[in-house]
Each structure stands twice: as C-alpha cells, then as structure tokens.
Amino acid sequence: MPFSEGLSAITTEEKIGFINQNGIYVIQPKYEDAHSFTEGLAAVKLNKKWGFINKSGKLIIPFIYDDAHVFTEGFAGVSKNKKWGYVNMKGHIVTPLVYDEVTEFFKGNAIVEKKEKISLVDKDFENLTSFMYTYSPTKDYIRLEFAFAVHITLSPPLSTSAALVA
C-alpha cells in the first residue's frame, strides 16, 4: 500500500501493521485488513470486525462494523448486517445504516444506493436527488447528468472508487 499521511500498511506473516517513511513500525502488525490513513484515521479489521485507529495505533472507533470505507470530508461509510450509513470522526452514527452501499464524499456530496437506485446526498445527509437513477453493475460506468449540472461517473461495483465530477 502506498504511503498516506506518512504511514504505509505492511503485511507480515498475514498480519498488517503500519510503518513510517524510515521503514520503522509505528503500529505493530496485528490487523487482518486495513485501509490507508485519511484525515488522521485508518479503518482496520480485527477479529472479523472493522474499527478506526489513529496514527499512534489508539482505537478511536470500536471494532463493531462488518465493513468500512476511509474518511473523506469528515465522514466514513460503515456497514452492519449488509446495510451502510456514515459515522463522523468521533464514531457517532450520523445516518441510519439503511443503504445498500455508500461512497466517499467528494466536494461535499456522496452517492448512496438503496434497492438498486442511487441518489446524491450532501453533508447534511439531505437527498439532493430522489432514488430514481438505476445503478447497473454490468456497465463499465454510469454517467448521470442532473438538472443542476452535477455529473456523476461510477465505476462498478459501486464503491469508494466512485467519482463525482462537477
């Protein structure tokens, strides 16, 4: 994994830890999986559950989630029982876990999917569009043009790699 915020995840004996740019372990290998540090936190998996640690390895958000995305613009997507929502950097759930998938925030907006329909939400978690756009994982991408000139391109599967282009 490339360096992010001065640290890189390294796998040793099937466990993941983080090294600094001098190659010294800052966080010893003990995790089953990990995402890069963003906004000072990294999503890490331990005992089949995801939580978030800071750059010194202190647990900030407990290991209670089935899956997790990285933090962007103060929020991270998290899932339990195959339903997604968002947490803030203090670990407070800011939306109910009701979505089938969520993306990272980009320029103040994110995409959420519910019952194979997608919608654009803002940081107040107001739907800027209704759930009337269909996501098709069989396409190479989907480009949606909304009346207010926001263009969305998704690369399947709907994931954190989705991009919003305004």
Kindly describe this structure:
There is one protein chain. The protein has 166 residues and is mostly beta strands. The protein folds into 2 domains: 82 residues, no CATH class; 65 residues, no CATH class. The chain has no helices and 17 strands. A 4-stranded antiparallel beta sheet has the order 4-5-6-7, with no helix packed on it. It is elongated, with a radius of gyration of 17 Å. The C terminus is likely disordered.
User: Helical element count?
Assistant: 0
Q: Tell me roughly what share of residues is in helical segments.
A: under 10%
Q: Which range does the strand content fall in? A: over 45%
Can you summarize the main beta sheet? 4 strands, antiparallel
Main structural class: mainly beta
| Alpha-carbon Rg, integer | 17 Å
Overall number of structural domains: 2
Total beta strands: 17
Stretches with pLDDT under 50, minimum 5 residues: 138-166
Average pLDDT, to the nearest integer? 83
Summarize the helix and strand pattern as letters: EEEEEEEEEEEEEEEEE
| Spatial gap, N to C terminus | 29 Å
Shape category: elongated
Main sheet strand line-up = 4-5-6-7
